[in-house]
Amino acid sequence: MASCIRRLSIAVSGLGRIGARHANHFLHHTPRAELTAVFSPDPREITWAKENLEPWGVTIYTDYDNMLKHIGLEAVCIATVTTVHAEQSIKAIKSGKHVLCEKPLSTDLSLCQKVLDSARAHPHLKVMCGFSRRFDSSYLAAYQSTLAGCIGRPTILRSQTCDKYDPSVAFVQYAQFSGGIFVDCNIHDIDLALWFLSAGTPDKGLPKLRTVTAVGVTALEPALAKYGDVDNGIGIVEFYDGQIAYFYSSRMNAPGQHDMTEIIGTSGKLSVNAHPTSGLLESHLANGIHRDIPQNFFERYEHAFVEEAKQFTDAVLDNKPVPIDLESSIQAVYIGTILQESLRSEKKISFDRKGNRVKEWNGSAPGIAESQIRAEL
Amino acid sequence: MASCIRRLSIAVSGLGRIGARHANHFLHHTPRAELTAVFSPDPREITWAKENLEPWGVTIYTDYDNMLKHIGLEAVCIATVTTVHAEQSIKAIKSGKHVLCEKPLSTDLSLCQKVLDSARAHPHLKVMCGFSRRFDSSYLAAYQSTLAGCIGRPTILRSQTCDKYDPSVAFVQYAQFSGGIFVDCNIHDIDLALWFLSAGTPDKGLPKLRTVTAVGVTALEPALAKYGDVDNGIGIVEFYDGQIAYFYSSRMNAPGQHDMTEIIGTSGKLSVNAHPTSGLLESHLANGIHRDIPQNFFERYEHAFVEEAKQFTDAVLDNKPVPIDLESSIQAVYIGTILQESLRSEKKISFDRKGNRVKEWNGSAPGIAESQIRAEL
Amino acid sequence: MASCIRRLSIAVSGLGRIGARHANHFLHHTPRAELTAVFSPDPREITWAKENLEPWGVTIYTDYDNMLKHIGLEAVCIATVTTVHAEQSIKAIKSGKHVLCEKPLSTDLSLCQKVLDSARAHPHLKVMCGFSRRFDSSYLAAYQSTLAGCIGRPTILRSQTCDKYDPSVAFVQYAQFSGGIFVDCNIHDIDLALWFLSAGTPDKGLPKLRTVTAVGVTALEPALAKYGDVDNGIGIVEFYDGQIAYFYSSRMNAPGQHDMTEIIGTSGKLSVNAHPTSGLLESHLANGIHRDIPQNFFERYEHAFVEEAKQFTDAVLDNKPVPIDLESSIQAVYIGTILQESLRSEKKISFDRKGNRVKEWNGSAPGIAESQIRAEL
Amino acid sequence: MASCIRRLSIAVSGLGRIGARHANHFLHHTPRAELTAVFSPDPREITWAKENLEPWGVTIYTDYDNMLKHIGLEAVCIATVTTVHAEQSIKAIKSGKHVLCEKPLSTDLSLCQKVLDSARAHPHLKVMCGFSRRFDSSYLAAYQSTLAGCIGRPTILRSQTCDKYDPSVAFVQYAQFSGGIFVDCNIHDIDLALWFLSAGTPDKGLPKLRTVTAVGVTALEPALAKYGDVDNGIGIVEFYDGQIAYFYSSRMNAPGQHDMTEIIGTSGKLSVNAHPTSGLLESHLANGIHRDIPQNFFERYEHAFVEEAKQFTDAVLDNKPVPIDLESSIQAVYIGTILQESLRSEKKISFDRKGNRVKEWNGSAPGIAESQIRAEL
């Protein structure tokens, strides 16, 4: 007896570390979706796809545009390198596909804006940026508590993203196009700040940016400095109406991946992952008690990624709003770039209530394109 | 492009709380398996199946024997009430199907033995009893540590199964056929004891039963007494060659499901779930710090059930041994029934090295069938 | 200006590991007490006392009877080897001194009884057995919660005492006079059981003993067997009116001292030390997260010992009842000896409601003296 | 027999919340010290002293200068209101007394400098500012680990001081003279930063200040704004040579006192109090698992205060350096005042390697006295 279920035909673009995961999730763990096509320009990724995806009936493309023409294709999950996220998103939208794009849309705000313009020009299409933590059960529970008023007004948010140090990873080279540590790592924390603090703004909209300050050090990788980057960064973002977020990111956390978040309200605090662990096992050995923590973001967020795929699919099939607003995702990139700018300029950067930068004494005005973007958002 | 993957055609028998989960897992989360048929005699379960399974191409049967004749069916997952587990398993085996049966095979040892006889008569079929904890990542990590010698020789095992008290559950009535608290709840703990302690027996085989003692109280449900049952039970099982397991089970754990296990070796201890939590969220509120724990076994073991389905499927398709030995599963039932007998008789029950009961002063010898079963195992 | 505070003149008998601690506490951390004398027959201990106590004005005696004659002495803290606890207690009582005696009074019940007789004959004297855990802040908080009804009726108590394995300790030799692991280690757990479960007995008195079962293994020290002892013991004690305590003791806990207790009531559970740690520090290193635990009972209970000294002193000076009832302390020893007997005889031992042993099939009646003691208590 | 121990004759000035504690510690828990005198101008405090101190032979003074003339007095512990710390310290030093002064010496840097000048003019006297956390066992263990190189080079320090919100405390009025939240609360965190980061500076000296940024909000007490203060503050302090400390302070932590510190090095992290708790008790109740945390700094640091008294006494009697360097304590105040200034001015404040402020665009140079102090330190 054949299935009569309506399933979303989706393709995954890019089959690197995270793309392969997305492909696997849409293929095997998202019942209402059907992975029908994938794209990769990389021979090794294609070899992997031939072995792991093709036997399940997935068509492999080495040309992104051709993939978009796959018969019946309805949606694309974009998981290529960041530099082509925006272009691929726009192409997909223009060819009438729903889009789930890995974060960030781009490290270039004007490109982000173009994706937003495309999405607005195609309001029947769902376009979402994949911030996986929003689908993690612990963060979801924290958000429900926040909405329920358990902590009063959310006022301060502290959040960190700390990766295990891996000397074999060429993150110095990677720093050239990652956008820097605040865009690459803290983008998740910024997104969480926008999400949680919105619950406490006067109009429940995005909190309004007021000042940005960032500092950092190159503790293990001095060569990062030539790209204006660091391996440990700390940033403070003030919002209007009395809210503050502050962030820490590190590429040298010894035991593994340790991100954590505190949402501090006027009558309580929610703490996510203050006591990190990779499971429920502890070893009581001669030199003390030990536990492991996740080694990377994927071990930490595996189930969140599956839930993300599911909720995006549901939003498309049931024509519901996607769970993450695109403007918010672009604002997260914007704040990340301003933090990175503050790191490099060693300046505190201020904004007026309309989101325009407050001109500074030395005449170094922000780029025009940028402030226009801000005014429009 | 069509899939060319070989998938296992499996049916699920019984669509109650746990059966519906199994159906869902084989349908949506076990890529190499295909749920093709289900059986239930229950109108509400059939209504559920029509809504949730039939649209995916699953055939619904109201007659178990007919389901076994489903074209191409290769395996059956049995999740009906315990009283028909054995009969359905034997029928499935005799019709050439691989069997994954929910624990326990039966609370009647002679029926367990018959399933074992059938399985032995069909050695090309995979027959496994589903003890889900063996597929939980924390228990698996503990087992790997044990095998790796991290704790020396495993010597003492403490394990508990504590369910949230639910006054609406008719567990007094349920006690009539559950086999009692040691068979119903601690069976998992007993299975864990056999698994972990085997790593420390002289021949790496099952530890040999030496004595069994159990006590209990009816703290919340005095009516349990008429079925020889309790709502809190404590048991000690001694094995030959210096190993002991001790167990606690309770039906009145206030915040939810809290099972935990300690595997104590000559040079270390592994502790699973000493610090129970349902996730990574803690709430810091005016009256202290709070966290939640899973509300039931399914919240606790959801991913383990998925892994169980996957490993069973792999074992069949790849013709590998199933991960849980059937004799071990029957031995777990046996120990559970002896614990229950010890609870009822208020006696400590002893066995010789061959597994025969040591005759007691009052002449109340164990049933003949039982000792024969033991001698054979 | 001189102090006009009335202070209790107290002596400490025995300056071994625990005696030296008591001396220090009464000398420096019990403001209302004044350590005026000490007794030790051991030259090394005397050397220590000359250096550490004598300069503070403490008189050292090498004869216990002479120490009792120290001018103005009002109380004695007895911390010698267990074998002389009872004799020294009785002598102190007879010479009109208040007594704080380290646990146990004796491993010989008839000697315990004699101390009790002496104490009853001198009702104006305070006589207390020092069970330090009762003065630990976590246990005290648990007890307050229990009394406040937070967990309903206390029904099940689980408690363990696990010492760090120290191959240099001659505990095989020590086993000859320690009374065995249930008397030596679990005595504290038994005392806690009597304390907490009393809050749930019909008359708030001591719970009435019903059955005792114990087992054990010699995992690291086979030579213990010749003294009828083990290095890992598990015992169950049933009480009348639906209460059970079960215990574990071990001499091979790898990382240090880990005792813990759960008090399980009809509507909640209190857990003391499920997440052991020696402080608030965790180390996040390349191979995971680590923490230490106390290395011995003194690290764990240091502040409890100080509190014990303080409360005993207050009870004497203010003529209040001592916080631990002497009958309860003797009952703890009694239960410990019965557990040890059950371990050795491999029998479950039963009692009627009056506390008399139920005669067993093989005619091995309990000793007469013992049952008389029980009847009287 | 009288004591022949040499004990330090010490007085306590101020018997408020913290002064009464100090008096108690020197009186009862510092064996080598003898509390001989106290000073308070407050009738309620004097009443308390008459009841609690006088009977132990302590002389009460209502005039500080008279107290300094107490026969045999050798040292003074100053625990009055902050505004007289410096003056009383200088008087004590000039009269030849050793000084343990509560933090901070003053919120006025020039007064701090005067104390330092006095101390330097009397090098035989011990002068120490009491930063109690340095005597906490968990912080001490972390410091030992840091010195032992367990975490590589200490690079980033995060530290927070969060007090329980107490609407009855007049902290708005208090804000007038507290120096502000960064001086009042985070001073401890700053001191910890100086302590731990010194272990990673090129010369093991104090880390050299580079930039200071602070922000804050008045979430619960808007009236704080009129004193340039906030109830939640966040600050970042950059040091030269690649070290950063960042701080959070709050006066609205719902469950109680929660300070915590992370010391992040190039190969590991030490975490103090990430999992706050007031003991080892957890309650498993119908609505989840609960634990309490300390209600105030004293519950958290009680034993650290005792240790501080002991180590100060030992330093004097044994003529050893005091454990906390006075320059470091003044630098902590200085950094706190700069953070507070940054909060108020909304500017990032920079320093050159010599510690002089980098002149800012608007011409608002730092006070001359201040930069001179910095140059000298």
Automatic annotation (TrEMBL), chains A, B, C, D:
Assigned keywords, A-Z: Oxidoreductase
Organism domain of life: Eukaryota
Protein name per Swiss-Prot or TrEMBL: Gfo/Idh/MocA-like oxidoreductase N-terminal domain-containing protein
Residue ranges annotated for the GFO/IDH/MocA-like oxidoreductase domain, each copy included: 147-270
Transmembrane segments: none
GO molecular function: nucleotide binding; oxidoreductase activity
Gene Ontology biological process terms, A to Z: NADPH regeneration
Pfam families the record matches: GFO_IDH_MocA, GFO_IDH_MocA_C3
Organism name: Amylocarpus encephaloides
GO CC terms: cytoplasm
